[in-house]
Amino acid sequence: MNTKFIPLFLLMSSFVFSQITFNGCHGLLDDQNFVFNNTGTDAQNKKIYITTPVDGAQDCGGIGTCELKIQWNNMLTRWEIIADSGNGDFASTFLLYYNSTGNNLATNPPSNSFGTWVENTAVTNGECGGNLSTGNSVLTGDVHSSGLSVDHSTITKIQIFPNPVADVITISGVEQVNSVNVFNSNGQLVKSQNFGKKVIVKDLPPGVYVLKVMSSNSEMKEFKFIKK
């Protein structure tokens, strides 16, 4: 809910590749996708996600324009989805959902199928349609759906080589992964494939890229590499 333009570079570094897509609370937010970018981490090393760009262009049906954030509340030990109430600085916010039953050891929030994302009806008046579920919402991307700590999951064993690379990147240390995506320095998706241990990059222009590996339980690992 924002009427002011805030330059994108104030919220994002030139390398922000972790994204979450959310579609839910249709009574207040309409049936539309909100794309959150990881804009940093907090003092507990939990990731912070904000809908970007913060420019007042994200329509929220009858309540104006929206800026949303997903963040960790360390005092209450829970993940929260909040809406800004003014100019996009999140100094004054409304709590839409909270989840304290997911894997709190993870640095990223749980999906809508793990733990319970509880609608904060004190704010929404029940207009979000109840707690988040796979039937009334989408919450995908850099989320987790496993009770295992990210530090102990299989995906932490993944490695890529060579780096720098000219033609082909090899992925080692894992057998089952959902997808592999490559992003350029502007955060644009330039290559996507189902999991394979070889990723052909010879067609990419020289530069710096990020390869993202997504596991079957929505855990993600990122590797920055240089294309020669």
TrEMBL record:
The keyword Lipoprotein does not apply. It comes from the Bacteria. Keywords: Signal. Residues 1-18 form the signal peptide. Residues 160-221 form the Secretion system C-terminal sorting domain. InterPro entries: Secre_tail (IPR026444). This is Secretion system C-terminal sorting domain-containing protein. It comes from Chryseobacterium koreense CCUG 49689.
